[in-house]
């Protein structure tokens, strides 16, 4: 294996680079998770998380990856055989639907081309036709990490409301929370699913459910078996600052520091930074003569960009060249996109020169892989960075 000097460029769309401050915060002794110091930490965390989710309601923290919080959202609110509406926006939406099916739900999937987000008109059609209100939940991945497409959650909410349909709205924000504008309460989301290792700049291992009053009411009659994921004991224990299980103490230290950083920069500035880096990335991709996978400019992701390689060029070979020569990891094409796209993560702990270095590595990697990427691509990105 080649020995590389300097810092590895981890430009996959999660796990993302963990800031030094967060790593230092994590490197502290464990404390008694039933003691007063811990209770105070929990209270501070639950307060500091609220504006990130855009909610005044309960937020449940799990020592689990994002997949665990997917399961929690489903098992707390639904009963065996319930009909749920899913959308084939990409790999993660597909996995979530398969999980729902596996849990004994009747998970219906509206097909998609992996280049678009959830179509609000399709939501309106299905729910409008469902006069008997058999659909109990609508599952949406806000930012589809496999495609770099961001669904328009407020428009989906409007479609549900216009159909006057009571289905719950469950939204996966694993790769958008803390990077893209998101408003759990204002957008009428019932359960928001999130994870620690993407926009929140932490290592993997924490995940979250933000819960609306309506979802909380649904949880009282839901009959899927929730057990470890059950919101009720967590919310009850959180009242006094504790958890019914052993919480991931050191990751919570890191979370406090990550939240401090997000609030110091200011969430609107954080969102604007991500949007600007995404714009600069798209400028480079186009000037290289390549295509962004996302086909609708209203749905461009601020946290990652999936790039299509030209026919005959294996995207995984490009990634391998970039890794070997420049010590940078790019995201692979997932599922049916394997070998056809690579993904540039530009989320989390990230600045203009991180992006410039990232795009320089991609440009050289493309050229070394036989793609006639126009070298003005990098300059096109720098123009965006300089002007803003
Ligand atoms: C990463 C990701 C997940 C899965 O989370 P894990 O932490 O890997 O379990 C789910 N949904 C989206 C949108 C993701 O990006």
Automatic annotation (TrEMBL):
Cofactor(s) of this protein: pyridoxal 5'-phosphate
Keyword Magnesium: no
MF terms (GO), sorted A to Z: alanine-glyoxylate transaminase activity; L-serine-pyruvate transaminase activity
One GO term of the biological process aspect: glycine biosynthetic process, by transamination of glyoxylate
Domain Aminotransferase class V: 13-320
Binding site for substrate: 343
Sequence positions bearing N6-(pyridoxal phosphate)lysine: 198
Function per UniProt: Soluble hydrogenase catalyzes both production and consumption of hydrogen from suitable artificial electron donors or acceptors. This subunit catalyzes the tritium-exchange activity.
Name of the protein this chain belongs to: Tritium exchange subunit
